[in-house]
Amino acid sequence: MLAQEEAKLIGSVAKESGVPIKTIRYYEELGLLKSSGRTEGGFRLFHTDVLERLHFIKRAQSLGLNLSEIKDFLQVYDAGELPCDHIKTKLEDKVQAIDEQIQQLLILRQELVGLLSGWEAKSDKFPTTICPIIENN
Fold first, then answer.
1. Which residues, at least 6 apart from 25, have a Cβ–Cβ distance to it below 8 Å?
2. Which of 30, 38, 33, 31 shows the shortest CA–CA distance to 9?
């Protein structure tokens, strides 16, 4: 086991990383983090590299990667390899998905602008219709 001065208590890790204790426990449960043991009182201890790992997890999430994908990358790293090629492929997939979403949103925007450009109230003509402009187009 690591010497006590090299290990960090979970509360200290949470404070230094800005990641809540509950989240750190959850990441450990998922296998994203590994504690280096426990104190006599049962508090989790982590090696100081946990801060770098937490930073990686949070940054990867901010780029749209999910925890399952991040776990896969960390497993490659833990096996002694850099996961950069795997990450590059996933990020390329994310860019393609974003491009597709942008196209779908542009089509939706065009449809909404078209609806709004011909807007006129037709309240008396269609008593059984909630909004004839939406329903008739």
1. 10, 44
2. 38
The type of residue at 3 is A
Beta strands in 13-102 (DSSP E): 37-38, 44-47
User: How many helical (H) and strand (E) elements, i.e. helices and strands, does the chain have?
Assistant: 6, 3
The pLDDT of residue 135: 73
Q: Which residues of the chain have pLDDT under 50?
A: 1-4
Q: Give the Cα separation of 105 and 94 in Å (integer).
A: 16
Q: Check residue 6 and give its pLDDT.
A: 77
- Residue 32 is given by DSSP the state S
**Helix, strand, or coil here: 14?**
helix
Token look-up 């059984």 returns: 128
